[in-house]
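It is worth pausing here to work through a concrete case rather than discussing structure prediction in the abstract. The textbook approach is simple: state the sequence, then state the predicted structure, then interpret. We follow exactly that order.
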Amino acid sequence: MWVSSVWRTTLSPGRRAQSALAQLRGILEGELEEIRGAGTWKSERVITSPQGPSIRVNGISGGILNFCANNYLGLSSHPEVIQAGVQALGEFGAGLSSTRFICGTQSIHKNLEAKLALFHRREDAILYPSCFDANAGLFEALLTPEDAVLSDELNHASIIDGIRLCKAHKYRYRHLDMADLEAKLKEAQKHRLRLVATDGAFSMDGDIAPLQEICRLAAQYGALVFVDECHATGFLGPTGRGTDELLGVMDQVTIINSTLGKALGGASGGYTTGPEPLVSLLRQRSRPYLFSNSPPPAVVGCASKALDLLMENSTIVQSMAAKTRRFRSKMEAAGFTISGVDHPICPVMLGDARLSSQMADDMLKKGIFVIGFSYPVVPKGKARIRVQISAVHSEEDIDRCVEAFVEVGRLHGALP
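Step two, the predicted structure:
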């Protein structure tokens, strides 16, 4: 106490502030050095072109094949999508400078919400700045201390964070383990509402939730089903409506959250779609909706056009499925382990964080843009390079990517 008192009296307020800042810098530099030492440092490569199957990267001459974007349908740079954004920008302005309930709702926002509800065959929809915000805003507004939420242990961070914000009783079941989910549902029978929360497609592993079994158990134990469809909307299912369409349970999933920032134009934005009373409640209570600016008109215009293109013609969905099978089969034949089944997310499992980072760097030298993923994005010991197939990749692009993986894998001892 005496030392602290002397320290306060001998240092001026300015010196004390400088000392606190120096202490903070020391702590932060130590943490950053730990990340570097573990081989999990994440560098940001700078792209100098529009998003697409072939891009330009700062400091590298020539075109680079991009195999790590969420641009599943190739619509991020589609000329009609771009033109729709330009038109919305000219007609509705750069932004609203307001939240939705004050003076931030335009006709294009309402039109896109209606279109999303129609696409998913739900009663209503509500837009958010991102799907992270949609997940952050759902559970707290819907669930009370009388309720329970049951979450897959490998759900996306945004679902986990959204559940943390709510006051419901929380149950976590083992990944895709339906026996464990059933045990947790039995335990949760004492609560008012029970909500099972799962990703439709898991972004790090490329596996798909067993929605038929989840919905069967939910019906048996009186639970509702929530699915995050960020890595499914636009390209899974016969017409791209997602995992619930793929698995034939569209009428059994209660709530869907998804994004406009991947297959549907790739800009930003998210949404919740489901029962009309739920959407109305979210407009009244969902904090990310109430306290965030409205999605910009250009973003809304791009997403609306992307959705139009998908609803008019879904043949692009089938073409991407064939390209996904081509990449997976060729990589497995070469000796790589690819996680997941039949999803355009194709994680090349390597285990070691440093190896995944070094191989990704060497892939770039061969003209292939991929990124290594390691802890804390994935569990320790499960580092991988996540490859993502797009409908606008050609078969030649895919073959070139496989050839580069084989060369780099042999260089680093990942292949014999």
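Step three, interpretation. The chain has a mean pLDDT of 94. The chain has 16 helices and 13 strands.
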